[in-house]
Design goal:
alpha+beta; eleven-stranded mixed sheet; 16 strands; five-stranded antiparallel sheet; single chain
């Protein structure tokens, strides 16, 4: 493999496909993620956020020891090994897929994503994605920074989560939006239907590690998140500085016979599956979540037909309901909202009815 990096001792060799050795320079920052971001040359296309993900995923090591905390102390002269994902050769085609466009200008587009739509192509889902649809809708105006798989994509929501998502149509917008997500200044509120009714009066919840309570009945969940040790498709709560720091806040909007609740969640950080993992950790997994929701069932005696609908709900009951950020070009503050999708709205109405008398 040809080594594209400078021969200055910063990134000296790539002895095997998918493996890179990085030597930290004298003026390296003290945090590992920042030090690697400063040391890796631009040609490698490894942003700090991607390096943080690699660290959390166990792809960064020194002398055979894997480190998963991006805050690990970095020392000049250390040689770190990075295991890179093999590039995926995908021929991404524009597809005429209908989009629910909430807002659009020359620099960005805001979409209300339906359930079942994957955001960007992957070997298992090479077509029918949001990227395929955006390529048709936006044509050549879509930002190319994300590469062939992720043009214009600055964040994502899960396949079966509905709601608001912004994509960049220009490179300047891409840079500006990415910076806001990195700085956690983008506001994102989600609506979720969960098992049980979270309450500060619940001693079990109060005793759950990582759970604290704030004014107004707000529940704060703060943990590390990393890939599950045995199931790489899942995320897991981790402690002692491991994984990526994740903070979710939530408050109950409406309870249903102690069996379920409509909960509003908002993100301080945006990690993979964050809300789903955090609420499951708190003992209040999402209705319909086959990955994290557990095996709980709603009581038909207490909720009537609503229990039947809730127990058969075909996806995680999660909706990205609001999105706010500064326009990356004009500086104007933009706020968008999207109502509950039909399936969640119908479930809420059924839960409100309670048992048949």
């Amino acid at each position: 493999m040809h080594n594209p990096f400078d021969d200055d001792g910063i990134a000296a060799e790539t002895p095997a496909e998918g493996v890179m050795f990085v030597t930290l320079p004298e003026d390296a920052p003290l945090r590992l993620d920042k030090a690697l971001a400063a040391a890796v040359p631009e040609e490698a296309s490894l942003s700090r956020s991607r390096l943080m993900r690699m660290i959390a995923d166990g792809a960064v090591s020194r002398d055979g020891l894997v480190v998963t905390d991006p805050k690990t102390k970095a020392v000049a002269g250390e040689v770190w090994q990075l295991v890179l994902e093999a590039p995926e050769a995908l021929d991404v085609q524009a597809e005429d897929i209908p989009l629910s466009v909430i807002y659009e200008d020359d620099d960005l587009i805001v979409i209300n994503k339906p359930a079942g739509m994957v955001v960007h192509p992957a070997p298992g889902t090479p077509a029918g994605t949001l990227v395929n649809a955006l390529l048709h809708h936006c044509g050549d105006s879509l930002s190319g920074i994300g590469g062939v798989r992720r043009p214009g994509i600055v964040h994502r929501i899960d396949k079966d989560t509905t709601g608001l998502l912004v994509s960049a149509k220009s490179d300047r917008a891409h840079h500006g939006l990415a910076a806001q997500f990195e700085a956690h200044t983008v506001t994102r509120h989600y609506m979720a239907l969960v098992h049980g009714v979270p309450s500060g009066a619940d001693p079990r919840l109060r005793g759950t590690k990582g759970v604290t309570f704030e004014a107004g009945g707000v529940i704060r969940l703060a943990t590390g998140l990393a890939r599950h040790r045995t199931d790489r498709q899942r995320q897991a709560v981790v402690w002692d500085g491991q994984g990526r720091h994740a903070v979710t806040r939530a408050n109950v909007l409406e309870g249903f016979a102690g069996q379920a609740a409509l909960v509003q969640c908002w993100l301080e950080t945006g990690r993979t599956h964050q809300i789903r993992v955090h609420l499951a950790h708190a003992g209040h997994g999402l209705l319909g979540d086959q990955t994290y929701g557990g095996k709980r069932h709603l009581s038909e005696k207490l909720l009537g037909p609503g229990a039947l609908i809730g127990n058969a709900f075909a996806r995680q009951a999660l909706h990205a309901a609001s999105l706010g950020f500064e326009h990356p070009v004009t500086g104007e503050r933009l706020e968008f909202t999207a109502p509950l999708p039909a399936d969640m709205a119908e479930l809420v109405e059924a839960l409100r009815l309670g048992p048949a008398i």
